[in-house]
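Lab notebook, bench 4. Still working through the backlog of constructs that have no structural model yet. Next entry is a single chain of 142 residues. Request: give me the structure tokens for it.
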Amino acid sequence: MTGSPRVLIVDDEERFRTTLCKLLVVKGVDAKAVGSGKEALNELDINPYDVVLLDVKMPEMNGIEALAELKKAHRTVEVIMLTGHASVDVAVEIMRLGGYEYLLKPCPVDELMDKIESATERKKAREERLRKAEEAKGEGRA
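Model written out:
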């Protein structure tokens, strides 16, 4: 993969998000962590990210609500949902809203890195397709 993936970690548990952020940085990821869905939306408005690691259970705005808002405002970002509580209904809703993956916490770092790398590649491929479509549309007008 070319370049470090830019990853935003969103989790209300400070210890979890800071530890995960440090682990990802050691693995060569450009990572930042925030504590809520609202903070994530604000951060994404300011800085681009390839992948968002988003906790399902959070106060105020839960992960499902945050996923819906993130995808509305930032269509190309890939979202990997993390949860300590497996649920088929939640997994179905995540996929319906455009989530890339649904993983149980704690997730082995190597497995998470594989998911981050594949999600980043998917995002870059989608952006390339969109760029080519825009170029083709522009050439059609000329």
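Notes after review: The longest helix spans residues 109-141. The radius of gyration is 15 Å. Flag for follow-up if needed.
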